[in-house]
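Quick one, tokens below. Sequence please?
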């Protein structure tokens, strides 16, 4: 768990699972994979096994020891709803999040249908607690089906991470969505992001009264292009009353 994060929209990260597998074009230049693989084979290093999917049971209860309230990004180095993560382990993670209700947990996945089905089993006819925010990644128009999966999931607060934005998304139905994050790709193979793609998403958020957060333009380094869109930094956050 990292108390403090370079990610602009969170305070800390918590990784009870690390490692993943690539499933969409948005994964092609994954920063987490690139970071983890640097340490493959280094004895004793947390990423000695590189980006292989790894459960970390010793980390499951970490948020309970943090008494000061934080926004915590869950599994910045993995996907909690990877098909090889057992439901029993996901249960343990959710048990901790429910108990540590003085924090806000931000859970993000590309495996949106698996998350939806898990939430339906766990919460049945009620919504997930409002301090557990559930989100999906949407990197281009063909990934918009994930928004429908999220909308039909029993979540209190729903968000979209449109990052890395690698193509125009087009019209978005934001009904039931509380927050949209947009960002460009970073790293040595970063794909360029059109300003018009970003403006179109911001306009739709404004028209549909959804909080908009612009994270970065991206480039060789995450901060290469700054965070300003048309002369303004967009740091809107969802209202906690949304839950």
């Amino acid at each position: 768990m990292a108390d403090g994060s370079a990610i602009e929209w969170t305070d800390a990260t918590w990784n009870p699972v690390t490692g993943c597998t690539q499933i969409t074009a948005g994964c092609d230049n994954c920063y987490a994979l690139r970071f983890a693989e640097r340490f493959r084979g280094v004895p004793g290093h947390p990423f000695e096994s590189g980006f292989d999917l790894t459960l970390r049971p010793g980390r499951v209860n970490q948020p309970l020891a943090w008494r000061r309230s934080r926004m915590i990004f869950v599994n910045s180095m993995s996907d909690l709803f990877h098909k090889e993560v057992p439901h029993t382990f996901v249960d343990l993670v959710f048990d901790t999040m429910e108990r540590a209700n003085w924090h806000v947990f931000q859970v993000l996945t590309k495996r949106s249908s698996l998350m939806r089905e898990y939430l339906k089993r766990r919460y049945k006819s009620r919504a997930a607690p409002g301090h557990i925010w559930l989100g999906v990644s949407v990197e281009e128009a063909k990934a918009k089906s994930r928004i429908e999966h999220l909308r039909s999931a029993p979540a209190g607060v729903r968000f979209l991470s449109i990052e890395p934005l690698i193509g125009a998304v087009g019209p978005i139905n934001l009904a039931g969505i509380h927050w949209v994050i947009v960002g460009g790709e970073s790293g040595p193979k970063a794909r360029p992001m059109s300003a018009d793609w970003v403006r179109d998403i911001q306009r739709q958020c404004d028209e549909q009264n959804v909080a908009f957060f612009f994270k970065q333009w991206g480039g060789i380094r995450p901060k290469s292009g700054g965070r300003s869109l048309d002369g303004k930094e967009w740091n809107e956050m969802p209202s906690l009353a949304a839950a």
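The longest strand covers residues 104-109. The mean pLDDT is 95.
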